[in-house]
Amino acid sequence: MAKAIKQIELVQPSAQEEQAQDIAGLLTQLSQNREAITSAIDIMGQLQKSGILDIIQGLLHSKEKVASIAIDQVNQPNMHNIIRNGFNTVDFLGSLDPQQMNIMMSAVTKGLDESAEVMKRNEKTGVLGLMKALRDPDINLAINSMLGFLKGMGREMGKEHSHYKTGE
Question: pTM of the full predicted structure?
Answer without folding.
Answer: 0.48
